[in-house]
């Protein structure tokens, strides 16, 4: 069974991608599967460098320590095949009606999903003001925050939904409702 809807989530560091997609998963339970494009990247990186995969996947300082090098290495693979990690992440995903991709970072990620899953795809952009992101642990880092993995979607505006998850944003329940409304005609 292929998914009936594929939700693509993007947003800057500490905008709340994991927070919102984890809550969505709690609502949708076994109807959904969370997919992380970064999972195959972290898997290979951990294997190659003898690191702990689960530590890399979780929201830890460990991840931040290796982020820069993982970006450089994964970019070298993407140059040859932009869909490589998207394809890999989907190959490992369970068969569920709703797929939640929680870490879209590039226009080519969106292109790959739209080419592959066509009109099942919905794009959601999470925004949060810098003060709020800082209060969640964001510190600007050269080579991370000013490169493609963080900035490529700055000039993409064709979102199906934009969610303010910072100052003045909607309550969690309303944020969830706006996401579920996107799936309505597809389930
Ligand atoms: N609406 C919110 N209310 C309270 N806390 C939040 C909210 N959104 C996010 N957070 C908290 O902010 C921190 C960062 O959020 P999260 O890890 O989801 O960001 P992210 O976009 O996935 O970041 P990264 O790109 O670095 O992985 C987490 O501790 C999370 O629990």
Please explain how this structure is put together.
This protein is α/β, with parallel strands linked by helices and 187 residues long. The protein has a domain at 5-37 and 94-186: P-loop containing nucleotide triphosphate hydrolases (Rossmann fold, 3-Layer(aba) Sandwich). The chain has helices spanning 17-28, 38-49, 53-57, 61-80, 84-91, 107-117, 130-135, 148-151, 172-183, and strands at 5-11, 32-35, 98-104, 121-127, 161-164. The mean pLDDT is 94. The site of adenosine-5'-triphosphate has 11 residues, from α1. Adenosine-5'-triphosphate is lined by residues 11, 13-19, 59, 136, 165.
Give the key terms.
187 residues, alpha/beta, Rossmann fold, 5-stranded parallel sheet, globular, binds adenosine-5'-triphosphate
Summarize the structure.
The chain has 187 residues and is of the alpha/beta class.
Which geometry do the CA atoms define? Answer: globular
Bound molecules: adenosine-5'-triphosphate
**How would you spell out the order of helices and strands?**
EHEHHHHEHEHHEH
The name of the CATH architecture of one domain is 3-Layer(aba) Sandwich
Strand order of the biggest β-sheet: 2-3-1-4-5
């Amino acid at each position: 069974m292929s998914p009936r809807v594929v939700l693509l989530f993007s947003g800057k560091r500490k905008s709340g991608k994991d927070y919102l997609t984890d809550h969505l998963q709690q609502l949708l339970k076994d109807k959904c599967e969370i997919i992380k494009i970064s999972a195959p990247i972290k898997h290979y990186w951990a294997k190659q460098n003898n690191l702990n995969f689960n530590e890399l996947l979780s929201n830890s300082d460990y991840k931040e320590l290796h982020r820069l090098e993982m970006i450089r290495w994964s970019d070298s693979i993407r140059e040859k095949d932009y869909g490589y990690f998207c394809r890999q992440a989907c190959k490992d995903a369970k068969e569920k009606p709703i797929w939640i991709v929680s870490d879209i970072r590039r226009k080519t990620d969106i292109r790959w999903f739209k080419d592959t899953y066509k009109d099942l795809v919905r794009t959601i952009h999470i925004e949060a003001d810098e003060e709020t992101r800082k209060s969640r642990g964001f510190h600007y880092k050269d080579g991370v925050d000013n490169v493609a993995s963080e900035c490529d979607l700055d000039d993409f505006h064709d979102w199906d939904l934009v969610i303010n998850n910072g100052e003045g944003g909607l309550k969690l329940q309303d944020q969830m409702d706006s996401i579920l409304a996107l799936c309505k005609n597809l389930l």
